[in-house]
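Data follows
____________
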Amino acid sequence: MPPQVSVLASSNQRPAKNAIDGSILTRWESDFSDPQWLAADMGRIISLSTVELHWEAAYGKVYDIGISDDGVTWTTVYSETNGSGGTEVIDVSGNSGRYIRMYGRERGTGYGYSLFEFIVSGDPSTPISDPTLP
């Protein structure tokens, strides 16, 4: 992910920033309830290719991947209805957005959602638009 990426979450039993720090020794962990979410702000609207979810043992069984240009209005680009954890690589090519979110609807365990890494791949060198420009 580009260096300007930041991350927010619905809850932080362990910090959201752990999900984008490049280490599988740290993780983001949510509260033990549904729904929960984790969203990355790419800093500008970019063309997207994949989202990788590297789950800890507490994973999302039912979740959506959504994109947004403003962090308020979301478009679902992928829905999982029977996730099994581990590492999931999701093709989101053909979409663009500034914000990318994992929105957990149903946990796979009694614990919260827990991600070692939330990796968004795209082409930051060719933004669709730059909201900082007048």
Q: What stands out?
A: The radius of gyration is 14 Å.
